[in-house]
Amino acid sequence: MPRILTIGxxxxxxxxxxxxxxxxxxxxxxxxYHIDTWTPFSQSSRVSRSLAFRxxxxxxxxxxxxxxxxxxxxxxSQFDLVWIDKAVFLxxxxxxxxxxxxxxxxxxxxxxxxxGNRSRHFEASGALYDLLVTTKSFELDHYRHAFxxxxxxxxxxxxxxxxxxxxxxxEEKQADVAFVGLAETSRxxxxxxxxxxxxxxxxxxxxWKKFVAxxxxxxxxxxxESLTGVEYSRFLSSALFSPGLLSKKFPELHTxxxxxxxACGTALLTERNAxxxxxxxxxxxxxxxxxxxxxxxxxxxxxxxxxxxxxxEAGRMRVEKDGRSYDCLLHxxxxxxxxx
Length: 340
Description:
Blueprint: E1 3-8, H1 15-26, E2 31-36, H2 38-42, H3 46-55, H4 59-73, E3 79-85, H5 92-99, E4 102-109, H6 120-125, E5 131-134, H7 140-146, E6 152-154, E7 174-180, H8 185-196, E8 201-204, H9 209-214, E9 220-224, H10 229-237, E10 239-243, H11 257-263, E11 267-271, H12 274-279, E12 286-288, H13 291-303, H14 305-321, H15 326-336
Parallel strand pairs: 1-2, 1-3, 3-4, 4-5, 5-6, 7-8, 7-10, 8-9, 10-11, 11-12
């Protein structure tokens, strides 16, 4: 029986966990094995985790690599496929050990790898992979320069079809905007603009506590730092609108929420750019080029609910039709290496 080994964060609600379950479903005739990198990281001290994020060194990184090497010792000697999710902490020595036991070795990351999250370990190990999967079109030249001759697959971000789905009927949605994501200065301005326009906002994510404490608006409802699994989907599904705000730390052109929001049956508020405009038409998402335009469009659709309902439904149908679910996206990756 063929075998697959996945290495990554095994925490329900994370995109890594979603990809693992999707891979095991697509390769149902493979015997699945998994090595979790979250447990050794989460059990490390706060200082160790900070060192890992900043310098990709320290006790947390040591613990992750030790966990992988120890786990390999008790696993079968060979795998037909090893899939590594976000290998920023894996040293070249650990990756070479995995390479020796992998018929095919794939690296996948939904994050930046050069303009952010840069890892000397990954850059020293990239040549060991059979396929490198990225979702960042603006980093393709970086991949080609760092790993000349390597096979590189550009994928879009995706959603988990079993998890991200409409959970609240349109008629029962709250007349507000729901946003989930990390706090950034550019995002402060978006939330403030909505509140100043009298539009209720529900908010979740890390780094917002000071911003929320400084706000006096009764229209702001901060639900906490983390929403995962069904709670996350219900949060998005229960609102009329949700912004898929792009990071300004690098030239991001779309994000996971670009597809998760419409998959949950909610109208996507998105900046207009080359990628978002290629994914949706004006009848399938609510585009804006400026904050005043965003406010004007939200206010328009609050007055025209049936038109908003049609956009929400059309957006959901578009992500389904275009195959933005992990089932479809990962099937494409596996097809490229001849496993499906």
